[in-house]
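Request: Show me your protein:
***
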Amino acid sequence: MLRRLSLVLLTATLALPAMARDISLTETITVRSVNSAVLAADGQLAAYTQVTPRTPYKDDDGGSYQALYTVLGDTKVPFITGKESFSQVSFHGQTLYFLAKRGDDKHTSLYRMATTGGEAQKVVSHVNNIYSYSISADGRYVAFRAQTKADENKSKLAKKGFRAEIYEEQHVFTHAWLVDTQADTVEPVQVTDNQQVLSVAFRPGSEQLLVRTAPTALVDDNYMSSQYQLIDYAGKPVSTFASEGKLGKAEFSPDGRYLAVIAAADYNDPASGRLYVYDTSKNNERKDVLPDYQGHVQDIAWRKNDELIWLGHRGTQSEVQALTMQWFESRTLLEPGKLIAVDIEAAPGQNDILIRAHSAEHPTELFRLSNQQLQRVTDSNPWLADITLPRQETITYKARDGLELEGIVVYPTDYKKGTKYPLIMVVHGGPEAHYSDGWLDRYGSPVKYAAQQGFALFFPNYRGSTGRGVEFSKLGQNDYAGKEFDDLVDGKNHLVEMGLVDAKKVGITGGSYGGFASAWGATAQTEHFAASVMFVGISDNISKFGTTDIAKEMHAVHARSYPWEKWQWYLERSPIYHAEKARTPILIMHGKEDTRVHPSQSMELYRYLKTHGKVPVRLVLYPGEGHGNRRVAAQLDYSMRLMRWMQHFLVDGGKEAPAHELPHADNL
């Protein structure tokens, strides 16, 4: 009897689900994710790449590792695993192509390997790195982007001390090159000159290349002055596709007649989110095929000569639809609310669609959409099933002028109705960006970790955000730190009125334009925030214009004016102007090699606040990092400092800055 009872109890114990547990900051920043996917011509065989971040304290500093898998039905086959790095995977027939720097390679080269397995073979190498490539339909030609051979005299002179840099004048263009793989000598031929080539692709059914070009190699011209054009194999211009402002992805229909382009509505549109189709049979006539779409188109893929699949982000959700060329009518394939789709892949003449997508429960994974049935293909982090997940939802609220706004709320893990919690408000950058109601865990917003510590989190899509059409995305123009940042305070007040948030325990953080908001919240709006963490943010809008690499874009789609047109206005819309008011403890962090928002922006605010001496302030610089931390150690360090600052001032009641040391050495 006792033996039988023991067996019953043991069986019951084994049947119990595993106890949910907390997530660590290290786990937050080292989750794996699927970062690309391609579909073979048969519509069944797929390939995807999975990113594995380095292990903090164990691996040397560097970028993430990648693995390549193929998948057919339920069968996954690993092709490249281990500590590898490669990019731009594509199919051509039964062959996989990719870019990598392997073995004795001095530069990134193009490789291929059969889908049946075997060793990778080098297809094309060059005197410099290959940035991207395209393969002709018959497989004979390869087009790629690369720079010419570096000038050896420069390196010789540099050794002698001649290292002068002429700012913004030493253009090193990236050109388009063409290789005939059937020629006696496989020698790349340069087909463009005196312009920056930003993309290259073959036009189906003709010996022509589609290239996106800009007049200089400056990032500002990439953003604001690029153009799509057709050239022949000799580099001679064939035709152009008229557009203005920002440009996104472009893709020809399988027969080469239509060119679909994601572009801006006009020169002052903050983002490329409109969908246009050019008809080459009608002298490249352009049609706005989604004229009233109150969202932003993110990706496109042709499934037939007359059917274009498009992915849109609308509000905090995403959707996938199919558009016919005959009537320019769309039908829904994946409704909003299912997942947050990132991009899509389709094969001409095939039904299935690959979708990379994430949700509040998991980072980006691979899904297959077949006959409107969604199937999950990958599970990169099975351990997440054991993690306690906080409640996450989209809310709407009204700004003080009546404008309806959206935001995403994450509740504390042990949320109890009627209890007021400390809040961390996470403000997105851009401002031409938006938050989707999916996987929000980042090193700058460790959602689940913070929720476990008893914090509520709020991700506001303030006016000027994308995802709600062109008109909404322009509402913040010519109003730096105006109504757009009042929207943040109104969102905070809404959460207080809901009974969720303690009004005296609200922190604000964000990067870039979100860093600007964090600095503004700590100075001009200091009465609303009890702690701030500013990352790669703006403190002086006058000097920002003079030190950024996107001055043209700033004027066209943000400021809509120049500093010399209203010096005082620009000064008053700068956090340093309000530094004397600051009573909000602020932690300032910045990549030391940032060219978008120069580190001097953080140094200025730090110096002003330090000199006034009325509030705790600390400046942390990250050597080797730019406009955002890319390496895992710098990301973990940032997360630890962020959470310690918020805990110290919002929960522990700290008055002075916490110690600057972190327990890194304890983990070595």
